[in-house]
Amino acid sequence: MKDISIILFFFIIPMAFADLQVGFYASSCRNAESIVQQVVQKRFNRDKSITAALLRMHFHDCFVRGCDASLLIDSTKNTTSEKQTGANASVRGYDLIDDVKEAIETACPSTVSCADIIALSTRDAVALSGGPKYNVPTGRRDGLVSDSNDVDLPGPSIPISSLSQFFARKGITTEEMVTLLGAHTVGVAHCGFFESRLSSFRGKPDPTMDPALDSKLVKLCKSTTGTNDPSAFLDQNTSFIVDNEFYKQILVKRGIMQIDQQLALDKSTSPFVSNFASNGDKFIKSFATAIIKMGKVGVLVGKEGEIRKNCRIFNKRN
C-alpha cells in the first residue's frame, strides 16, 4: 500500500499493561536516553517529517502484537514479517532506529531494547516538533515473533463506533482515542486514501468537506499517474508542529481523511474535538498521557522476549 503518514490502523490484541519504569536504564546504560535524543535531533534538523514517521511506526508496532518492536523485523525467504504487510508496507524511519541502535550498542551492548528505542525516539521527535516533553517509562523487551498473518489493520474509513471498540478493548477511552488521532497534526495522506471523498470521484460535492478544500484536492489528485500519488498535509496550517490546529480544521469541515472528519461529526467524539480545538494546553497534556498509556499495550518485560542486537533480525539461538 502507498504511504500515509500517521493514519492510525488498529488490530484487537490482548491487554498487557505491565509495570515499566522511568529511568529503567539509569544504571545499566546511563547515557541511553541522551544517545537517542542526539540521533533524533540530528535527523530532525534535516527532516522534520521524521516526527510523523516515528509516530506512525510507534502506533503500528503497538497495535499488532503490542509494543515489542515486531514491526522492525525484516522478512526472510521463508517468512513474511509484519513490516511488509498491508498498511505497514509504507511505514518509514527504520534507518533512524538502526542509527540509534548502533550508537547504543557501542555504548552498552545487548542492554537497550528496540521497543524502547521506538518509544524514546518518538518522544524526542514529538518534543522537537513543539509537542509535550514527557517521560517515557522503559523496560520493554523485544518480541520473538513477527508474522504477516497477525496484521489485519482497518483502513481510514472505519466508522467511529468500530474504532472506539478497538480502543476500548485495549483499555483506552474514547477521549484518549480522539487525543491519539491528534497525531495527524503532523501527518500526510496520499490521494489514494481520500480521493473517494472528492467531487471528481463522487460526481457531486461531499457535504462534510469544505468546497474550497475539495477544489484544492481535486486539482492535487488530478496529477496522480502510475506510481505518483500526491499527498496532502492532514493539518494544513501548522503541518510540522504538534499542536491543536488539526482539531480546529476538522471543526470547519477541512478534514482530509474521512475518519478525521467524522471525529468532528460523531456525537460520541465531537465534544472532545471541540474541547481540544479551544484549549491547546489541554490537548498537549492529554496527548502526553495518552501516548504513554498506548506505549504500555502488549509489552514484554522481565525475562520475556529478548534484547535484540540488531533491530531488524532476531538474535541467534544457541
From TrEMBL:
<feature type="binding site">
    <location>
        <position position="61"/>
    </location>
    <ligand>
        <name>Ca(2+) 1</name>
    </ligand>
</feature>
<keyword id="KW-0408">Iron</keyword>
<feature type="binding site">
    <location>
        <position position="238"/>
    </location>
    <ligand>
        <name>Ca(2+) 2</name>
    </ligand>
</feature>
<keyword id="KW-0964">Secreted</keyword>
<comment type="similarity">
    <text>Belongs to the peroxidase family. Classical plant (class III) peroxidase subfamily.</text>
</comment>
<feature type="binding site">
    <location>
        <position position="64"/>
    </location>
    <ligand>
        <name>Ca(2+) 1</name>
    </ligand>
</feature>
<dbReference type="GO" id="GO:0042744">
    <property type="term" value="P:hydrogen peroxide catabolic process"/>
</dbReference>
<dbReference type="GO" id="GO:0005576">
    <property type="term" value="C:extracellular region"/>
</dbReference>
<keyword id="KW-0349">Heme</keyword>
<keyword id="KW-1015">Disulfide bond</keyword>
<keyword id="KW-0560">Oxidoreductase</keyword>
<dbReference type="GO" id="GO:0006979">
    <property type="term" value="P:response to oxidative stress"/>
</dbReference>
<feature type="domain" description="Plant heme peroxidase family profile">
    <location>
        <begin position="19"/>
        <end position="315"/>
    </location>
</feature>
<dbReference type="GO" id="GO:0140825">
    <property type="term" value="F:lactoperoxidase activity"/>
</dbReference>
<feature type="binding site" description="axial binding residue">
    <location>
        <position position="184"/>
    </location>
    <ligand>
        <name>heme b</name>
    </ligand>
</feature>
<keyword id="KW-0732">Signal</keyword>
<protein>
    <recommendedName>
        <fullName>Peroxidase</fullName>
        <ecNumber>1.11.1.7</ecNumber>
    </recommendedName>
</protein>
<dbReference type="InterPro" id="IPR033905">
    <property type="entry name" value="Secretory_peroxidase"/>
</dbReference>
<feature type="binding site">
    <location>
        <position position="243"/>
    </location>
    <ligand>
        <name>Ca(2+) 2</name>
    </ligand>
</feature>
<feature type="site" description="Transition state stabilizer">
    <location>
        <position position="56"/>
    </location>
</feature>
<feature type="binding site">
    <location>
        <position position="82"/>
    </location>
    <ligand>
        <name>Ca(2+) 1</name>
    </ligand>
</feature>
<feature type="signal peptide">
    <location>
        <begin position="1"/>
        <end position="18"/>
    </location>
</feature>
<keyword id="KW-0376">Hydrogen peroxide</keyword>
<dbReference type="InterPro" id="IPR019793">
    <property type="entry name" value="Peroxidases_heam-ligand_BS"/>
</dbReference>
<dbReference type="InterPro" id="IPR000823">
    <property type="entry name" value="Peroxidase_pln"/>
</dbReference>
<dbReference type="InterPro" id="IPR019794">
    <property type="entry name" value="Peroxidases_AS"/>
</dbReference>
<keyword id="KW-0106">Calcium</keyword>
<dbReference type="InterPro" id="IPR002016">
    <property type="entry name" value="Haem_peroxidase"/>
</dbReference>
<keyword id="KW-0575">Peroxidase</keyword>
<feature type="binding site">
    <location>
        <position position="235"/>
    </location>
    <ligand>
        <name>Ca(2+) 2</name>
    </ligand>
</feature>
<feature type="binding site">
    <location>
        <position position="154"/>
    </location>
    <ligand>
        <name>substrate</name>
    </ligand>
</feature>
<feature type="disulfide bond">
    <location>
        <begin position="114"/>
        <end position="311"/>
    </location>
</feature>
<feature type="binding site">
    <location>
        <position position="185"/>
    </location>
    <ligand>
        <name>Ca(2+) 2</name>
    </ligand>
</feature>
<keyword id="KW-0479">Metal-binding</keyword>
<comment type="similarity">
    <text>Belongs to the peroxidase family. Ascorbate peroxidase subfamily.</text>
</comment>
<feature type="active site" description="Proton acceptor">
    <location>
        <position position="60"/>
    </location>
</feature>
<comment type="function">
    <text>Removal of H(2)O(2), oxidation of toxic reductants, biosynthesis and degradation of lignin, suberization, auxin catabolism, response to environmental stresses such as wounding, pathogen attack and oxidative stress. These functions might be dependent on each isozyme/isoform in each plant tissue.</text>
</comment>
<feature type="disulfide bond">
    <location>
        <begin position="29"/>
        <end position="108"/>
    </location>
</feature>
<dbReference type="Pfam" id="PF00141">
    <property type="entry name" value="peroxidase"/>
</dbReference>
<feature type="binding site">
    <location>
        <position position="66"/>
    </location>
    <ligand>
        <name>Ca(2+) 1</name>
    </ligand>
</feature>
<feature type="binding site">
    <location>
        <position position="70"/>
    </location>
    <ligand>
        <name>Ca(2+) 1</name>
    </ligand>
</feature>
<dbReference type="GO" id="GO:0046872">
    <property type="term" value="F:metal ion binding"/>
</dbReference>
